[in-house]
Design brief:
homodimer; 455 residues; BirA Bifunctional Protein, domain 2; Rossmann fold; 2 domains; 8-stranded mixed beta sheet; 5-stranded mixed beta sheet; 16 strands; 19% strand
Chain lengths: 455, 455
């Protein structure tokens, strides 16, 4: 609040205020779930030695402009009070590039950072797409080694496993394999994009559809068939890599890509990444504008969830504010999609309320019962129980229990004159309505055990 | 990043980009400390049964306008892509009021929420004042009981104690006591503000200075002396309350305020709040625009830190978007001030890096050593150690150790051909240069114990 003594008190504005379209409030129940998912991601990133950073929500517009292609129009920007054009954070990657340029002398490379923060895009809101949403990025800056890419992929696998996402597979491809495919298809570099786009639709429109699009892009019918046969190759990575190497022999970028991919799969195996969670997929294109090496995407087909995590190597991007290229690889978790999936499939057993115990205030006519309740609640808190006292005196007990039940608080405690005299506290388990008397001296320890079991 | 296949790759912009004035990047070392302090606040709020919520960074400007008096000019606002005037979150209290109005049918009252988030103000940047800073608010909405105010004050005391803030005292006053003082001084209600402002300066300008200001505000010299004598009363709460009751007898708001204050101090005592951490201070005014009941502020005089937490009851504010008043009380922790103090006085023993162990890659000519290192790093992670492998093959060991030292990683591990043959891992403690061989089979358990002791 304003600390000015003279500020006008808020005028009443009875017309119901609204939340902006594409923006959301989070009530406690959903917020607790979000915090849990974020905590799992953070733990996973930290277990891999990634360090947290934070950048401002606002940047010079110049820093953001020219970085997002056509999507640039979705940046919220405006002149600030000093007339500087400023823009709201649109993703966490351009700020990372700016951060590395500003602080390069304070950082030790390879620099592994994670950044979990909201970003803003003036996009058309629709189911699952918001104007304010959180990204959870982990990137490694300053090394070209496939050890870094393997680290990133293993994080994706560990994080999604920890969130209990079922049947996910990290599809892995390489930018230069796609380039090689375009060469193999006899398409000029400047038209290669249409080949990638066609191939990327394989799962969506099938082989016949892709063939049609390839031919429309100028690929000969027989070549189109060979391209499709190649990208559809399945089997163990060794077999697939061997087949590709054979077909793309003599195409320079393919050699480089296959060396990378071979190392990557070796490293993933050494890291113990479960084989069912990653695969080589020559049809994966992703947004290729920035990518220079391996690209990957975590996909769940059953139940259909689409892409949960996107990632890849982008050796030209982080150096955009510096005088030379700085290699980098990393991943971005779209928190909202993950949360939607977790909620829909109830993947995490998360409580709906933080509070674990309500200490009722016995509605007698003196303040002694209030003081007893407050002493008890303080003791429970010191014992590590998330406890609260009823915040009104004189309410009848039934109403206090109902308050706890509506909030989802699992236990209600009564310490009235009768309990005080008997040296006990009545502990009511509100989930099953069972009530037990617990000695006053041990009730904090008793309740700590009960709630720990439920956390 | 943009997922568009056609987006233009980022153009290189070699001119060094800047961070906007009043905004900050946080490098890992500071970010780890911030996360620790936020975690302590969150734990404290949750231990008291407060539930987390989140509101958007952007609101209709109309929601924010007319709520902050003169400071309204500091709100960042602009027309969005649809021509709606929107503003950036300026504090967490107006969004709470809007949240309660929108969701009142989904909430159970008293509603206890905490909200930890950045806010933005186009203020003149200066030491300790930023344009983007975090607020950590805890409020209770829907009860007039002093039990709620006592809960909030006890949180302040617990949180500051947990952060190791030395010698802090929560100064407590009551809006209606100040009103009574103005009546006692014979000043009309519409000029009462000048009396509050004068009294509030007692610690700064002393009794003579306050007397001068009071007289300038139209208070008679003799009355000014009596006012000053009254607000300077010190001693135990009982004594002070008794003295005030005597002097302000017959002034209606004083009776009400003293009832509140008496209950509040009783409740604080029952909650076990240490008496040295709170006091009645009739000279505390705070920004009174919104406050209707008790006001409080956590102050550290030695070393001089000023006010760390501001709080109070504001029964008229949360209902501003609703058709009736909704009582509320709460507190706002200014994270930046707390962090400054924690850093200056080194109050928390926080590590400077997340990563706990670097597994070096032995620079031999084969890939066997790389695979050994990766298997080891995966095992350490599974054991709960925050571990990473060197992200480049072929670096000499000295360079790998130096990388770990520069980063502040406490342990480096070597598993070269010699170690493999002997069935051990060499564990080097980089803080004291001591190196021990630990059996390969037990190294994960060994290291887990070592790093747990350091966390």
């Amino acid at each position: 609040m304003s600390d000015s003594l003279d500020a006008a008190p808020g005028r009443r504005q009875v017309r119901a205020p609204q939340v902006l379209k594409g923006f959301r409030d989070f009530l406690p129940e959903r917020m607790i779930l979000r915090q849990r998912v974020i905590a799992i991601l953070r733990e996973t990133y930290e277990r891999h030695g990634f360090e947290p950073i934070e950048t401002p929500a606002l940047e010079y517009y110049e820093t953001l402009a020219g970085k997002y292609g056509e999507d640039e129009k979705l940046i919220y920007h405006f002149p600030d009070h000093g007339g500087r054009e400023i823009g709201m954070r649109y993703d966490l990657t351009v700020p990372l590039a700016r951060f590395v340029a500003v602080h390069r002398n304070e950082l030790t490379f390879p620099f592994k950072r994670y950044h979990i923060a909201p970003v803003w895009r003036a996009d058309r809101p629709q189911r699952g797409r918001y104007r304010e949403f959180w990204q959870c990025d982990a990137d490694i800056v300053g090394t070209r080694s496939m050890l870094a890419d393997a680290d990133v992929i293993s994080i994706v696998i560990e994080a999604l496993s920890a969130i209990n996402i079922p049947n996910f597979v990290v599809h892995i491809n390489h930018r230069k394999l796609l380039e090689s495919l375009a060469i193999y298809a006899g398409v000029q570099a400047d038209r290669a994009g249409s080949v990638y786009r066609a191939i990327d639709k394989l799962a969506k429109i099938g082989e016949a559809g892709v063939a049609q699009e390839l031919v429309a892009a100028g690929v000969e019918t027989a070549t189109a068939a060979r391209v499709i046969e190649l990208v559809s190759t399945s089997g163990s990575p060794d077999v697939v890599i061997g087949r590709i190497a054979e077909r793309l022999e003599g195409i320079a970028p393919a050699r480089e890509a296959l060396d990378d991919i071979t190392s990557l799969f070796e490293f993933l195996a050494a890291l113990g990444a479960p084989a069912e969670h990653y695969t080589l997929d020559l049809a994966l294109a992703r947004g290729l504008a920035y990518y220079t090496g391996p690209v990957f995407e975590a996909i769940v087909d059953e139940p259909k969830m689409g892409s949960l995590v996107g990632a890849g190597r982008y050796d030209g991007l982080v150096g955009m504010f510096s005088s030379h290229d700085i290699p980098a690889t990393g991943m971005s978790v779209g928190l909202e999609r993950i949360i939607d999936v977790v909620e829909e499939l109830r993947l995490l057993d998360v409580r709906t309320t933080i509070s674990e115990a309500l200490v009722t205030i016995f509605p007698d006519d003196g303040s002694a019962s209030t003081h007893e309740a407050l002493r008890l609640v303080a003791e429970l808190r010191r014992a590590g129980v998330r406890a609260e006292a009823t915040l009104e005196e004189g309410r009848d007990l039934g109403r206090q229990f109902r308050y706890a039940v509506r909030r989802g608080v699992p236990f209600a405690l009564v310490i009235g004159p009768d309990e005080v005299q008997r040296g006990v506290v009545a502990v009511k388990d509100l989930q099953n309505e069972l009530q037990v008397d617990v000695p006053r001296a041990t009730v904090a320890a008793y309740l700590r055990e009960r709630v720990r079991a439920q956390r």
